[in-house]
Amino acid sequence: MNVAFVARVALIVSVAAFLAAPSIFEPLLRSLAPEGAPVIYRHANLAELTALHLGLTALALAASALVGVILAISVTQPWGREFLPLSRSLANAGQTFPPVAVLAIAVPAVGFGAEPTLIALIIYGILPVFENALAGLGRAPARALEAADACGMTRAQRLRKVELPLALPAILAGLRLAAISGVATATIGSAVAARTLGEVVFAGLASNNLAYVVQGAGLIAALAILISDALLAMERKAAEAFPV
Amino acid sequence: MIAIERLSKRYGETAAVADVSLEIAEGESLAIVGSSGSGKSTLLKTINRLVEPSAGRVVVDGEDVSTVAPHLLRRRIGYVMQGAGLFPHRTAFENISTTPRLLRWEEPRIRARVDELLTLLGLDPATYGPRKPHELSGGEQQRVGVARALAAEPRVLLMDEPFGALDPAVRAKAQVDLAALRKRLGLTIVLVTHDMDEAARLGDRIAVMHRGRLLQQGTPAEIFSRPATPEVAALVASDDRPFRLLALGSVRDLVEPGSAAGDPVAVEATLRGALGALLWSRRDAAPVVGAGGEALGIVTLKRLIEAGAEPKA
Ligand SMILES: Nc1ncnc2c1ncn2[C@@H]1O[C@H](COP(=O)(O)OP(=O)(O)OP(=O)(O)O)[C@@H](O)[C@H]1O
Ligand SMILES: [Mg+2]
Q1: CATH T-level fold of A48-241
Q2: Is the ipTM of this complex over 0.90?
Q3: Residue B187 lies in a domain
Q4: Which pLDDT score, from 0 to 100, does residue A64 have?
Q5: Which entry of A15, B119, B227, B301 is 20 to 30 Å from B71 by CA?
Q6: B174 in a domain, yes or no?
């Protein structure tokens, strides 16, 4: 029972309590709200917003994981190697665009709402997954690869039975980075009318209500911490199961 | 039977293997020796198509290997490499069962085969089967590597410096075990090594390579006593060449009638062992006894010394 574990449990309990009955926390937040203004955000159900925020992030994460890993596998095959530099610079370019710019470009194309946010999230998620998967696929020792061939594995079998398992910890590390940045980027999505926790923060900023800002930002931060923790634990498990 | 016919492999300007022809008979073991970069590994790997030749061909059991899909060919040929090359994320059991699984053997047959091999190699299946490679010593890893190569019951075993990473004591034990295994399974073995002693101990014949070319092939005694070129001579020349030569012969070859005093030597002992015994006890001759202790004659210091000398032209 170490401190970190206790802190984590406390965080989960408080998030759950806050989402179930936000009014319990009203006394704590009262001093942050302007005189006479509401303390707890009531324009939407906070639990529902949290679920939407998470859902959007998870959907985008799944898509970028799929694209990133497939891309990394493709450019490490003999037939795809020549596309390695190109795909690297494309993924890097995606990352250098600020999220707001991606949103601004996506809105005219697909309209307001969840779609432009999803596009931005996917684009942002691909690079960390791709780069980490690439590093992971390069992690298998040359001798193990030669052994796989010598044992009579086909290329596909070698990929599935040796290269991917050994790459899994690195792939999970990439997912973790993408998830953390995704949780943050989804916040900005509310600027283009995606329903996320960003709505609470922006409402607070617009009405000068610090209590709103703290509620929204606190929930977002808590989500990022908990997701990162969960993925880190998986990563450690995988590294243990698939040591190099 | 393996036939390597006029085989060459070039990498750009370098000829890693240049016009090599070799035959390895069924059940024979051939040791390939030569200095670093002489093309030993490249030649070995053309047999299971880990390397594709630039010219020439390899025929295994009458079949040109270039006509067989590489992954199918490799499932019938065992391959052991230096440092074992185990899959780090798989247990010893899983490593050994790799090829049988690719061949879709039934689960009970796989289990029985892995247990049999682990036992044969002196590793308790219950203890070692579930261990990951990082939980095994270098020698144990090497044995698991050998077991993995033998799992699908190949008749041909290719070995590329299999014991190169082991310390001398473990290595000697591994060599003895391999010789026993070979006898028991009737394996055809091609072994790459740069240790002449290992080549002499494990090879029925030795092939000497230098800069991609095959300089000489013959029995260890032929190679040691009559090197064909200065390069071969340089490879085998050393102060202990007489002892290597003596280690290849057995007392049986030199027994003569007579009687002598002191501890007897066994007729199956090496000449090197007999010489050691005589030197140590300051004798000129020792009685020779058979496996049942029966007297067979004597072996003399004089004959032993002659056996270790350079053959007269
Ligand atoms: N994949 C490759 N690409 C280019 N050159 C290679 C390749 N493999 C081997 N060579 C070259 O071919 C020559 C023979 O190499 P090989 O590995 O067969 O030597 P070796 O006798 O096994 O040496 P060692 O005892 O050091 O293992 C060397 O000059 C080596 O540099
Ligand atoms: Mg080599």
Answers
A1: MetI-like fold (1.10.3720)
A2: no
A3: yes
A4: 93
A5: B119
A6: yes
pLDDT at A109: 82
Q: Are residues B262 and B225 in the same domain?
A: no
B278 is in which domain, residue-wise?
243-308
Query: Which region, left, alpha or beta, applies to residue B27 given φ > 0 means left and ψ of -120 to 50 means alpha?
Result: left
Question: Which tens digits make up the pLDDT trace of B100-152?
Answer: 999 999 999 999 999 999 998 889 999 999 999 999 998 899 999 999 999 99
B291 in the same domain as B260? yes
Q: Which residue has the tokens 């030749």?
A: B53
pLDDT in tens, B256-273: 998 888 899 998 898 999
Q: Is the pLDDT of residue B84 over 90?
A: no
Question: Using the beta-carbon criterion (under 8 Å), do B71 and A152 form an inter-chain contact?
Answer: yes
Q: Is B11 in the pocket of ligand 1 (CB under 6 A)?
A: yes
Whether B259 contacts B244, CB under 8 Å = no
Ligand 1 pocket member B81 (CB < 6 A): no
- The finding on whether B82 has its CB within 6 A of some atom of ligand 1 is no
* Partner residue facing B89 (CB), from A143, A151, A242: A242
Distance B26 CA to ligand 1 centre (A): 27
B313: confidence class by pLDDT, cuts 50, 70, 90? low
Q: Under the phi-then-psi rule, with left for phi > 0, alpha for psi from -120 to 50, and beta for the rest, what region is B5?
A: beta
The CATH number of the domain holding residue B292 is: 3.90.1280.20
State the Cα–Cα distance between residues B123 and A36, nearest whole angstrom. Answer: 79
Rounded distance between C-alpha atoms, residue A180 and residue A225, angstroms: 8
Mean pLDDT of chain B: 92
Instruction: Give me the sheet containing B14-24, strands edge to edge.
Output: B14-24, B2-11, B55-60, B63-64
- Ligand 1 centroid from CA B140, angstroms: 28
Residue B284 amino acid letter: D
- Amino acid letter, residue A131: E
Q: Cα distance from A156 to chain B (closest Cα, Å)?
A: 11
Structural domains counted in chain B = 2
Residue nearest atom 6 in ligand 1 by C-alpha distance: B11
Q: Is B6 part of a structural domain of the chain?
A: yes
Interface of B with A in 92-121 (CB under 8 A): 98-99, 102-103
d(CA A231, CA A222): 14
Sequence ranges of the domains in chain A: 48-241
A 140-159 residues with CB below 8 A of B?
141, 143-144, 146-154, 157
Residues of chain A with pLDDT under 50: none
Of B72, B88, B99, the CB nearest to A151: B99
What global pTM score does this model have? 0.82
Ligand 1 contact via B87 beta carbon (within 6 Å): no
Same structural domain, B253 and B192: no
Domain boundary pick from B213, B237, B261: B237
> Could you tell me the two tokens for A128?
């960390």
**Percentage of chain B modeled with pLDDT above 90:** 68
